[in-house]
Amino acid sequence: MRPAHPEVLRTEALGKSFTLHMQGGVTIPVLRDLGLTLRAGECVVLSGPSGTGKSTLIRSLYGNYRADTGRIMIRHGGDWVDLAHADPRVVLAVRRDTLGYVSQFLRVVPRVSTLEIVAEALTSRGTPPDEAKLRARSMLLRLNLVPHLHDLPPATFSGGEQQRVNLARGFIPNHPILLLDEPTSSLDAVNRDAVVELVAEAKAAGTAILAIVHDMTTRDAIADRLFHLTPLREAA
Amino acid sequence: MSEHLLSATGLHLSFGAIWALDGVDATLWPGEVLAVVGESGSGKTTLLHVLSGRSAPDAGLVAYRDTEGVAHNVHAMPAPQLRALHRSDWGFVHQNPRDALRMEVSAGGNVGERLMAQGARHYGVIRESAIDWLRQVEISPSRIDDMPHTFSGGMLQRLQIARTLATHPRLVFMDEPTGGLDVSVQARLLDLIRTLVARLGIAVVLVTHDIAVARLLADRILVMRHGRVVEGGLTDQVLDDPQHPYTQLLVSSVLQA
Fold it and tell me: Is residue B157 within 8 Å of residue B189, measured between CB atoms?
């Protein structure tokens, strides 16, 4: 019998360090022997002081940073994929179909309108353009981005507005796994509540969420449990 | 099952005592955009010329798989067959559009010529297709009978792209396609290339010294130095978590706007 909340992500002995060749080749260990599991429908929030590798962990799980050791097992369709050792094409397929990521800062192609940026998250997965634009518009409105902003490129937007464009793009494809790196850091209370609501809906739909959230109110509102990271130099 | 569209193994090419290519392997999947980055003299443009059959390597193999799934050794192909490939399945976008365009032929003629080389004969159909392509690259169809020398640099580059894509190639080689253009013109061109390539499912080998261009367009990236590939992988991996000292230098040298 299949459990109601199956595992969808599991790291095994994950390790990550950075070698800085520009600084005389010094090596900075960040993650060591890390074992984390994530189940469908739960939200795990990473805790620990600044500099303990929370963002590094999220970026490694997305395949943005390359793990040095260990495995990153991701449930992709009916299979398990080790993202730490997967072919680039497999990593791209996992990102398209399974794994979503909302980065701290919005990075987009210049000149492309906000609506197109969000709609592209759907069209790249095969949604017809008209339907994608309709859904993108309603997602942007849920995040309180007024209609006259939709047709503008977000380059000139405020930090909070850009963050909401990023969130709209991250939530709209309904990925089974979603990684959120400080999704509410530049948002006011009304917009934080909108994000809390989106997270609750995603969880109810079975999405597994791993987040970095510093604001306690938001954290308490979305977290099912915390995963604590300790600084390596203290642990060693 | 899908297989490599283009694959190169063990490419060597020397110019006198200098290795322009010193043991380069590269592969390209259908529909994939691969950027080759590095400073001038790294061998990236030489690699583009060898991959596209324009220069022969001293050693090594370049194989292209055609629409029937048959693999061809690019450098063992008879010249007429290679020329036919360049007219049909392949396209080449030069840094300087004047190297590709016929400056004494109208804009529409430049696009139509590629279509005629592929066998199109009906004047009305060719003209319709030329108008459609000018629109797609955001050149007003009212300019169809104008000579290229009346166009700005950005328009010329867009005309070259229209001419190249009109025959629906599966594989396009691009050599610094945004080089020498104003920044605002560059952004527009990048967006255009990105959109067209994604919509048409074209595979691209893109040579650029501009890391920002690679980030916007490429799925995968190869970093070249002294004729060797020092690092390769997904574009965001290589640029956000560079491993090789040279890549770290290259990434850290980019000015933050």
Answer: yes
Chain A closest-CA separation from residue B189 CA (Å): 10
Helices (H) and strands (E) in chain A, counts: 9, 10
Question: Is B245 in Cβ contact with A64 (below 8 Å)?
Answer: no
CA distance A9 to A199: 18
Q: Where are the beta strands (DSSP E) in chain B?
A: 6-15, 18-28, 33-37, 59-65, 71-73, 90-93, 171-175, 203-208, 220-225, 228-234
B234 and A110 within 8 Å at the Cβ level: the answer is no
* Nearest Cα residue in chain B from A21: B245
Q: How many CB atoms lie within 10 A of CB B103?
A: 12
Can you tell me the ipTM of this complex? 0.91
Chain B residue at shortest CA distance from A93 = B219
A11-67 pLDDT per residue, tens = 999 999 999 998 999 999 999 999 999 999 999 999 999 889 999 999 999 999 999
Answer whether A66 sits within 8 Å of B252, measured CB to CB. Answer: no
> Under a CB-based contact definition with an 8 Å cutoff, are residues A61 and A140 in contact?
no
pTM above 0.80, yes or no: yes
pLDDT tens string B75-114: 999 999 999 999 889 999 999 999 999 999 999 999 999 9
A23 touches chain B (CB under 8 A): no
Asked if the Cβ–Cβ distance from A59 to B240 is below 8 Å, we say yes
In B94-184 the beta strands, taken as DSSP E runs, fall at 171-175
Strand partners of residue A37: A10
Interchain proximity A64–B241, CB inside 8 Å: yes
